Amino acid sequence: MTTDKANSPSHLSSSNLLSQKTEMENTEAENTNRLGEQLAEMRLAKGFSQRKLAQLAGLTNTAISGIENGRSSPSINTLARILKVLDSDLASFFATYKEDQRRDIRTVVKSDELIDIGNGEVVMNLVHNGNPSRQLAMLIETYPPHSKTDEKISHEGEEVGTVLAGEITIILGEQAYHLCAGDSYVFDTNIPHTFINNSDSETRIISAHSPTTY
Q1: What is the DSSP string of 147-159?
Q2: Fewer CB within 10 Å: C terminus or N terminus of the chain?
Q3: Which CATH number applies to 111-210: 3.50.50.60, 2.60.120.10, 3.30.1360.40, 3.40.50.300?
């Protein structure tokens, strides 16, 4: 008499355990993604870039990026530090986090819905339609005369932009590039970079970067 191995109790038990394990891993990954998405929404509501939040929370930009993109799950202590900067706490966060919220994903973003994530000197209006899963971020940037971004910004990804009006100097690593209206740029944003308007006129730039590190 032969035994059908595929239908044996031990085989079924192993299959069920494997299925349950896979389901638990998928659920955990989904929860990590949702947590990161909610933190990103809270950060944007405060007008912070990932870099700014990282500085205020005493973390690295890579850590914040990883949490928001669902690549890593923060410890309770790390989450508490982030929430403190965002004027929240663990109890309030998880009360909201557990609710199924409807997302208002817009096709048209009005001018008064742009989010300024600049440094107070340079205006960087983020075009955000409310979609936490978007793959591209776009900025409308305004540089007053003799203004600049923070020193040596760096974040994962690639950035492309065009100078619409005025002129700008981009310090990329150890190299300096001078651009005028109509000129465009493309570079690896892992390289530390600074944008400087040394002129007496306002400069306007439109840029996009991926992944969405702001």
Answers
A1: EE--TTB--SSEE
A2: N
A3: 2.60.120.10
